[in-house]
Write a structure and sequence with these properties.
four-stranded antiparallel sheet; single chain; elongated; alpha+beta
């Protein structure tokens, strides 16, 4: 009666079930960082995954966690695979029972005083797998400048998942996008917080949001400059946190200074913003004599607290972007 079932179970012993994974309409497949502290979801080009990526090591684009290629399935893909494997096993068992029942019923003698039949309910079950669906498209598509693999993310990415390369230019570009997004979202955040936590807390939060943009910008340009300067030699500690020193370093290295890429007005404004960042980092934003001396900003007196506006952030981003473009152009030719 159960011969078909026993044979099926014997054949299934040690058998694996392969679950296909669909790519999205742009040819990208979903991956997820296996680090429980990160679990960043991203996409990789399906062709590049086969031809460029190495099975021994994949890197997370956000945190650079490293693991073999077999560990980068998404949580949703794993759930789907478990469900599909269980469905296939149930289907194989159900269909083996159905086949055994049909054979048993055909062997029953006709016109017998006593007859027995076997019935397996539930209908024929599928024994094929359904592919895991791809998640929605991710707008930011990136191609690694080192290995040329293609991947896509939401938000920011700092490392290539295929080779672990940290792109200085990509990281800087992502930092500027983040700063612009924070600056452009201030009023939206203020309106939402006014309703949920009150006007006082909303104003404090939004002021902090704007002020952190200055620090973000200075640090982003510092890291970009350090990365681009590596080919020219060692740097003094935090040299690119100081505009004048940074400009002098580039003048020695490539015979171009910041005044070649910015107007005197833009440089003066940028210097004020750098000094404001210094005050925020080291003096709670309270003006002292050193700020007035180094910035040339006579709109404040000692003891006042500086104000950072959205226009300040626009000026900061515009100026450091011009400097970065100038540095990249001259370095590419060097």
């Amino acid at each position: 009666m159960f011969k078909d079932l026993i044979k099926k179970l014997e054949r299934m012993n040690g058998q694996s079930v392969s679950i296909p994974i669909d790519s999205d309409e742009n040819g990208y497949i979903d991956k997820q960082c296996p680090s429980v502290a990160c679990e960043f979801i991203f996409k990789v080009n399906e062709d590049d995954w086969r031809n460029i990526f190495n099975d021994e090591a994949i890197w997370c684009p956000l945190c650079r966690y490293e693991a073999p290629a077999t560990q980068w399935f998404t949580i949703e893909q794993v759930k789907h695979a478990k469900a599909e494997a269980l469905a296939v096993i149930k289907g194989e068992i159900n269909n083996a029972l159905r086949s055994g029942a049909q054979k048993f019923n055909r062997r029953q003698p006709k016109n017998s005083f006593i007859s027995m039949t076997m019935e397996v309910k539930g209908g024929i079950k599928r024994t094929h797998t359904i592919p895991a669906k791809a998640a929605e498209l991710m707008q930011l598509e990136i191609q690694c400048e080192a290995c040329h693999s293609r991947f896509a993310v939401i938000g920011s990415a700092y490392f290539c998942p295929a080779c672990g390369h940290n792109s200085v230019t990509q990281t800087f570009s992502d930092s500027l996008r983040k700063i612009r997004a924070k600056n452009d979202s201030v009023q939206i955040v203020r309106n939402a917080l006014n309703v949920t936590i009150g006007k006082d807390e909303a104003e404090l939060t939004c002021r902090s949001l704007i002020e952190t943009c200055i620090s973000d910008g200075v640090v982003a340009f510092q890291k970009y400059s350090e990365g681009m300067y590596e080919r020219f030699g060692k740097l003094p500690f935090n040299a690119f946190q100081r505009l004048e020193q940074g400009s002098n370093l580039w003048e020695v290295a490539v015979q171009r200074s910041f005044s070649d890429w910015l107007t005197s007005e833009e440089l003066a404004t940028l210097n004020i913003l750098y000094q404001k960042r210094h005050l925020l980092a080291h003096n709670e934003g309270i003006v002292d004599s050193q700020y007035i001396k180094k910035s040339g900003d006579l709109s404040y007196k000692e003891g006042q607290r500086i104000v950072v506006s959205g226009k300040d952030i626009d000026n900061l981003v515009s100026s450091i972007e011009k400097l970065a473009n100038g540095i990249k152009e001259i370095c590419d030719r060097a």
